[in-house]
Design brief:
It is a single chain. The N and C termini lie far apart (79 Å). The longest helix has 21 residues, at 39-59. The protein has 6 domains: 13-72; 76-120 and 350-355 and 466-500; 124-347, no CATH class; 360-463, no CATH class; 505-535 and 538-605, GMP Synthetase, Chain A, domain 3 (2-Layer Sandwich), CATH 3.30.300; 608-720, no CATH class. The protein contains 12 helices and 38 strands. It is α+β, with helices and mostly antiparallel strands. The strands form 9 sheets. A 7-stranded mixed sheet has the order 14-13-17-9-6-7-38. The protein has a 7-stranded mixed sheet with strand order 20-28-22-23-26-27-21, with no helix packed on it.
């Protein structure tokens, strides 16, 4: 039984007034007028009102005491996380020169400020992305005879002509959805080509002389749809399919088709998380040139894509070829081609984070008292940005004041290791503080653990603050800045990510019992669920824990292995089948890594959706409008097989539970207005009608289409129609295959 919450007094205004009036005959018998017009009654009404207010405030004392006791636990609320993104700087019509921009330049989307995290050289060039798109069988049949005659010199007995079309990879210009391109499976040569172009009317040699030896900041956004991460025993978080990219530039010293590698400067894997790759261009302008091609040699073989019949052919400075170079962390390098998905690549790019900088905030002066607390004006504070000075001396942040040294150093080396007995220099580890980033509360030591700020000491803070869902903006909304040179423009070619709201008081209080149970360590099954749900920066809709389960060995028990299946709360692209993208999985992976038992192999995965089709035939109850009833049945079926709200308990379709047509029929009969279910057909992508769909491992049903009509249920062939299954060419380019460009048809 929970402890009852005490209540000092529960009397209301009317009860207090009636009790006072009832006492009048006992204390003043001569008072007989109890109407509202009597002045004495008016006074009693006033006192009753004041008494009710006092009782209300007194009854709040237990709640305030409870919150005060909770504060003594020193468990801070989770702050809002700041959104991150990528921006590009352009010099479309300014001077033909390279502008160097420092970091911490403020840009904004309306009233939402962002700051750049890296400096860059803004090169006075443009860029476009091209790739060699394989022709379909129908297109190939149309052009094969003509182009075999044109390229007869290449059509030798031991070679094969393989036709492609030079295709522009155009980014989205608005919204929150970006395109994906698998450069290893959707291109003819497994490469993405970045064309560096001169601005209109400028000479190529002059531009090459301006950009020689400069650093090109190449922004890369990987496609966010990979299968997930894995935490190996005693190791950091890695991807099973870890890969890297290689960058090359044409070597046009002679007629031989060769490429010179560019050494990238980067601190991350561009296929794991978005970021900037810095490439140093050759210092010799001659090495920025391309081959002079004839009409029948351009784009053939391993040459760059043909730009014939385009406006860019006369503005081309040079190419940058981006390819995959695969590295397996547990095995030797292999030549097997894997999926390399990219969503965006652009030049003159910089990382940004949604934050505002406070250069100098004067706080209250030191008091010399133990456990002094100060509060910053702006919250939440971005982690690791606070610089606190006391009387001009910098103090350091610490996680726990109990680990801090005393302000009066211990002279015995046996008792303290922070005192250098040889030099007599005292450690400064006592000049520390703790920071609650959500509330902005700064706490100092008590003298025994951490130094107290001296009396009347001047305390000053410099920090960054920001965060929340307001930082989640769409494409081309960050277009303002007051700190850029004349002619420089800024835009965000991709939507921002990672912004989330701060934790509420109610959510924080619900989290407290779990913290005392698991102590922020992944041991029991419920610990995995609680800690995964506490991952900052994501909206987690569902998490399932599968002990002793390996995603690649689903039919056997794997000792020491735990798999987490996570599903986001929202997915704008797949609203009925939310799929975690790569950033989502990497965020959960990074949050769980320091909290797991080191001997546990932990896999974080999204669901493996299994497409299903459903058709339902019903009869409606007389008097009901059939159209709304059909829509209700459709909604009920969608909700019943939903990964987030499906099943009879409404907690999402259970893992390992077979999809049974009779259970779906039972859900349909619960809809008001349904008189009879004439039939229900269930099937997968290509099979005939079946009664059950087996769900195993990490699989969940994905409802591709549901049709509800009056009368008999339509056949699965009717509702599936002619939906084409997307296919990708995953073959490695054969050395005996010669790619040949095809000029696209013009209107």
């Amino acid at each position: 039984m929970p402890l009852p919450q005490p209540e000092f007094d529960g009397r209301t205004y009317r009860e207090l007034l009636n009790e006072a009036i009832a006492r009048i005959p006992a204390h003043n018998p001569e008072w007989t007028n109890f109407n509202d017009t009597d002045p004495g009654i008016t006074l009693l009404q006033l006192f009753a009102f004041m008494s009710e207010s006092i009782i209300y405030r007194a009854n709040l004392i237990p709640e305030r005491n409870r919150q005060k006791f909770l504060r003594l636990l020193r468990l801070p609320m989770r702050p809002a996380s700041a959104a991150k993104g990528l921006v590009t700087f352009q010099n479309p019509r300014g001077a033909l020169k390279v502008f160097t921009l420092n970091e911490n330049i403020q840009v904004s989307a309306g009233n939402v400020p962002f700051r750049t995290e890296n400096g860059l050289d803004v090169l006075p060039v443009e860029s476009k992305l091209y790739y060699k798109r394989p022709l379909s069988e129908a297109q190939r049949a149309e052009v094969e005879d003509l182009y075999r005659q044109l390229y007869a010199a290449y059509d030798l007995t031991d070679t094969e002509l393989d036709f492609y079309e030079t295709t522009l990879f155009e980014p989205a210009v608005s919204g929150v959805t970006v395109r994906n391109l698998d450069i290893s499976r959707q291109t003819k040569d497994g490469a993405l080509w970045v064309a560096l172009l001169a601005r209109q009317g400028e000479k190529l040699d002059t531009v090459r002389d301006r950009i020689k030896g400069k650093i090109l900041s190449l922004g890369i956004l990987p496609a966010l749809d990979e299968e997930g991460g894995v935490l190996y025993p005693l190791g950091p978080a890695v991807r099973e399919d870890q890969s890297s990219l290689s960058f090359e530039i044409p070597n046009a010293e002679d007629d031989r088709i060769r490429f010179t590698p560019l050494t990238p400067i980067l601190d991350h894997d561009p296929l794991v998380q978005p970021g900037i790759v810095k490439l140093t261009l050759p210092s010799d302008p001659e090495k920025l040139k391309v081959w002079t091609e004839g009409p029948l040699t351009a784009g053939v073989g391993n040459r760059p894509p043909s730009l014939e019949e385009t406006d860019e052919i006369n503005r081309l400075i040079t190419w940058i070829r981006i390819r995959a170079s695969h590295i397996d962390t547990r095995e030797e390098a292999t030549s097997r081609q894997r999926s390399i998905n990219l969503s965006w690549v652009g030049i003159n790019a910089a990382n940004i984070i949604q934050r505002t900088h406070v250069a100098a905030e004067q706080l209250s002066k030191g008091t010399g008292e133990p456990d002094q607390i100060l509060t910053l004006t702006n919250t939440p504070v971005i982690k690791d940005t606070l610089q606190l000075t006391i009387n001009g001396e910098t103090w350091n942040e610490i996680d726990d004041l109990s680990a801090a040294s005393p302000e009066v150093p211990v002279r015995s080396p046996r008792l303290v290791s922070d005192y250098n007995t040889d030099s007599g220099i005292e450690s400064t580890s006592s000049k520390v503080y703790t920071l609650d980033t959500e509330s902005g509360e700064i706490r100092f030591g008590n003298g025994a653990h951490g130094m107290r700020p001296p009396n009347s000491a001047l305390i000053q803070a410099a920090y960054d603050h920001g965060g929340g869902s307001q930082g989640m903006v769409g494409i081309n909304t960050i277009i303002k800045s007051n700190n850029l040179p004349s002619g420089i423009k800024v835009a965000n070619p991709v939507p921002t990510w990672g912004g989330s709201q701060a934790e509420t008081v109610t959510e924080a209080e619900r989290r407290i019992p779990g913290i005392f149970r698991h102590r922020d360590r992944l041991v029991a099954k419920q610990d995995y669920i609680d800690i995964a749900k506490s991952t900052p920066g994501i909206d987690l809709g569902r998490v399932e824990v599968l002990p002793l389960f390996h995603p690649k060995l689903p039919r056997q028990t794997s000792d020491g292995v735990v798999t987490l299946m996570v599903i986001p709360q929202f997915d704008h692209i797949h609203p009925n089948a939310p799929q975690p993208d790569r950033l989502f999985l990497e965020t959960v992976c990074a949050h769980l890594s320091p909290r797991r038992i080191l001997t546990t192999e932990l896999h974080i995965r999204g669901p493996e959706y299994q497409p299903i089709w459903i058709s339902v035939g019903i009869d409606t109850v007389p008097g009901f409008d059939p159209a709304p009833v059909r829509e209700k049945v459709k909604t009920e079926v969608e909700n019943f097989v939903s990964p987030l709200s499906g099943g009879f308990e409404g907690q999402g379709w259970p893992l390992g539970k077979t999809v049974d047509s009779l259970e779906i029929m039972a859900a349909v009969t619960r809809v008001s207005g349904v008189a009879k279910v004439n039939g229900l057909r269930l099937g997968k992508s290509t099979d005939a009608e079946i009664n059950e769909v087996i769900i195993e491992g990490l699989a969940l049903p994905q409802l591709m289409k549901v049709v509800v009509i009056e009368g008999d249920a339509p056949t699965l062939e009717e509702i599936r129609g002619d939906m084409e299954q997307s296919t990708q060419n995953g073959e490695v380019l054969d050395t005996n295959v010669v790619p040949v460009p095809v000029i696209p048809p013009q209107c």
